[in-house]
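go over this chain:
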Amino acid sequence: MPTTEHRFAAVDLGASSGRVIVGEVAPDRLTLHEAHRFPNRPTRVLGTLHWNILSLYQGVLEGLNAAAAHTTNNRLTSIGIDTWAIDYGLLDATGSLLANPVHYRDARTATTADTVWAAIPPPALYAATGLQHLPFNTIYQLVAARGTPALATAHRLLLIPDLIAYWLTGEAGTELTNASTTQLIDPRTRSWSTQVADALGIDLSLFPPLRNPGSPAGHLLPDVLAATGLPHPTPVTAVGSHDTASAVVGVPATSPRFAYIATGTWSLAGLELDAPVLTEASRAANFTNELGVDGTVRYLRNIMGLWMLQECLRTWESTGGEHHLPTLLEAAAEATPLRSVVDAGDPAFIAPDHMPDRIADACRRTGQPVPRTPAETTRCVLDSLALAHRRAIEDAARLSGRTVRTVHIVGGGVHNTLLCQLTADACGLPVVAGPAEAAALGNVLVQARTAGAITGGLTDLRALLHSTQPLRQYEPTGDHSAWDRAAARLGDAQVTGAATGQGDEEEPCA
């Protein structure tokens, strides 16, 4: 008998673009087809940087319409939504959006940390939530928004994926993996931290009830059915709605002794654990304990990621230069390795604009040669990212007591072969690169399991990925001690070998 295939739509919104991807799933089959891609262009209005959320929602509708056209009888088994974390929209009592959501890179949170820490000191805040300090976490945004008419009149606060789901279904919920990035969730109880909310005067009743990945999130409304051509009833399923939560589901690991790096605008580097690490040493190392699918914890560090290179390219193009990325990467591969490195976790690199100048300034401050050409700047960025990946993985292994045998790189960075090889060289560990669409795949897999199209836990889902997705393996090369010396220049030399040890070997990639 032929195997029944189910088709699922993954709505995957990133910082620079959104897309709707259709996944076809059977017990031994998993394929993706991109139905629609659309830009995500934030807009600055009267000095405030906003997400153009209505344009993004229109892109979602157009994507679902395109997805329907590629399925039998215009039917999807379900729809799942994942996006970036932290940001939110405010609704009034009628369910209307009060204002376009503010972008996390907006400067409004620049001075709120002291206010938050006066109410709840950093050690107590970390002990309660386990979250890495990032100046734009949701609690800092809410403190910055105090006294604004929108927050004063808000009836509901919906994180971005929950807002999209609400517009599609009319049903409001707060998906747990994304809620854990607000710095209002206790990772031990996987519920709201009233201690933090009360200390900061945050009204938790603004948030609708928590949802776990795999929970039903409603059915498409009649106007959405009309706009998309999908039939009634088409369900929406809660997935790991923080895109990194879905991306970690999409790691094709064959052993528990793995580290992951979800690459793109950010690099999220760390381990998957069964319980949070809430020690003072973990806080000092700036690690975060975000919640994952199936009761897991994403123990990771946020690193600036390919944002630095993206901003360099944008600056060079704005000044009349033409820099084709593949050609630039070829030139960077020939540039002197580790000539200059910068701290890829430095908040100085968060804001847009003038990135090459800021990289040059960082090199001057640390007494290193200033990159002279775009190729040298690109090599500096990629060496620095690889060094930051190494530091994060070694720190995570040391602080959690886990050993790591293989590093998995997923997301858009898998296409950057130089970065993948440099990460293997820096870590002294094999790197398995792929899949690029890990977030969409993780999104689809959670939907498919909920619908009964596949069964099992994360190990089973990852086995399906490993057997169906193209992967590439990179072995470490070169002088590993050169990376130690580069780390010492930044004052962050680590205990070498902390992330290695005896354990289960990963199966070689296909």
Observations:
- Confidence is low (pLDDT under 50) at residues 493-510.
- The chain has 19 helices and 21 strands.
- Residues 449 and 456 are 8 Å apart (CA to CA).
- The longest strand covers residues 29-39.
